[in-house]
Specification:
mainly alpha
Length: 80
């Protein structure tokens, strides 16, 4: 429901950085990293300083999750 409402708002005002930021947050919560990153970048390009900051945090978080995943994969390989 939230996605549909924000999508409709974006259709009406494609240059609104806040709508792009809200879509980025929504996709981030859903675990859709590629889509979230795309909306963070669009919001940032439209001048949102908040989006720039969240994009940096988003990238750091994803990098940490990837490293953690590699660690568990490596641990599994050693144990089995």
């Amino acid at each position: 429901m939230a996605e549909a409402a924000i999508s409709k708002a974006l259709e009406l005002d494609k240059e609104n950085a806040n709508f792009h930021l809200e879509m980025a947050r929504l996709f981030s919560l859903k675990g859709s990293a590629d889509q979230a990153r795309e909306f963070y970048e669009q919001s940032s390009a439209l001048g949102s300083a908040i989006a720039q900051h969240e994009l940096l945090s988003f990238d750091e978080s994803n990098r940490f999750e990837m490293q953690l995943g590699h660690l568990f994969t490596f641990k599994r390989l050693i144990l089995f």
